[in-house]
Amino acid sequence: MKILYGKSTTFFLVLLFLFSISKLYSQQNSRLIKTNPSGTDVLDDKNEKIGTTPFDLDKLDKKNSSIKLVKDNYYPIEIKLFEKRNKNSSFFQLISDCSTCLIGIEENDYVLKLTKIFKEYDATILVGIEDPILEIDENTVIGEINGSKKKLKDKDIYRYLGYPQNMQFMVLNSFKDSYITAQYFSDKISEKDVSNLQNPKVIFKPIVKKLSFNLEGRLLRDYSGKCSIDCEWQLYDLSDLKTPISSFLVTVDYYRTGNNYELILHEMIALSEIKLLETESLYDLLVLTEKKHLEQSKGEKINIALSTQKKYQNITDMLKETSSSVVTVETEKKFGSGVFISDNGYIITNYHVIEGEKTVFVRIDKEKKIKAEIIKSNKDFDLAILKVDVNSKGLSFNKNSTNLGEDVYAIGTPLDKKLQQSVSKGIISGYREFNGVNFIQMDTNINSGNSGGPLLNLKGEIIGINTLKATGENVAGIGFSIPSSLVLKMLNIVD
């Protein structure tokens, strides 16, 4: 028997190719709803369970126009289906709307990928997100739309891809409900900020390394097909925006469904963020980076002979004596408050009061105005030390813990320089942490100009430096003070 080896081999390969194509076609046109992980509950539009995945779509009542996929520890997926459903159409061809769908491709089959519920932590962390950078050659083919190859240099490419500079909302919104409080960040904005107290200390720069899409449709909202992105999320410390601390390369392969108004690149970046958040060690790294930055901000030690605690006969006597230790800090353009902490002229105030100023004056009373020297500052904690050449009566720092509901007094120069050494009373109404900094929250009435003034307890001790006030319509009586222990630590004051 004679065997035609070459022809037989060719025939076999052709059969194998046709089998593979038919298998892929049948899988992509499957009526089965498949998920990763499998065993996900399928609910109808009345939220009643009708099965688990893989689920045969033919078992769904024709009157149902939506389904929900639910599994413990994963975010649910809500899917709207076309009311008129062709029996020959695959499940994915019948989706009319699914904003939470992430469709992966596994073994040549389309699979709905569920997203794990973000792990909860005691505190969120503020992270700055820069505009994405496309690190792709403009002559490289990045995808196809209706068979037409697309490159970054194409005239109309950003009309449906989306500009990297116009996606702040999409980028920030994707971190919602996670342990990251996202804030738009740029070098230019950071340079204009008077202090870093409300700025993120940890920065992410998303670098898009690769894009791929093969879409079909008449308009952007109709485009559907395979998409892929490789995005490198580079992590930086605010103090060094040139050298990344770490980086995470995130690859997302998915299927874009029709009835989708999102711009292609915006959608890709958002999906890469969700996958980034699944990194187990990410939260600990973000916290450590923030903590290191804040610890380094305190600088070299400074020796100051701090004032010792004084005793007062009563509250009236205490307020009269301590008020004389509170000063108005003046510059050419603004003013705030400050407090003597030693008997030889050292003053604590807020950094934003003296920021950008070369000449600073301290008004001790209505008649006495003295030029002050800026000794040290900490922009991250909005603190500064001044020195004037006078004998002063400094106030002592409280070294014990404070209590919720404790009576407190704020002294400063609110709103107008003529209101120097004004006193307001309140209570400690809470303790808050924001952006890695702990605050005392009080309902004491403070206003612009109170910044840098002391918050005192009934003994006349400094328990904090008044720094922030909540503002807005119908908002009153919410102020924040940096605790005295943190003031001493982050200015690195040694007695």
UniProtKB/TrEMBL annotation:
<dbReference type="GO" id="GO:0006508">
    <property type="term" value="P:proteolysis"/>
</dbReference>
<dbReference type="InterPro" id="IPR001940">
    <property type="entry name" value="Peptidase_S1C"/>
</dbReference>
<protein>
    <submittedName>
        <fullName>S1C family serine protease</fullName>
        <ecNumber>3.4.21.-</ecNumber>
    </submittedName>
</protein>
<dbReference type="Pfam" id="PF13365">
    <property type="entry name" value="Trypsin_2"/>
</dbReference>
<keyword id="KW-0645">Protease</keyword>
<dbReference type="InterPro" id="IPR009003">
    <property type="entry name" value="Peptidase_S1_PA"/>
</dbReference>
<dbReference type="GO" id="GO:0008233">
    <property type="term" value="F:peptidase activity"/>
</dbReference>
<keyword id="KW-0378">Hydrolase</keyword>
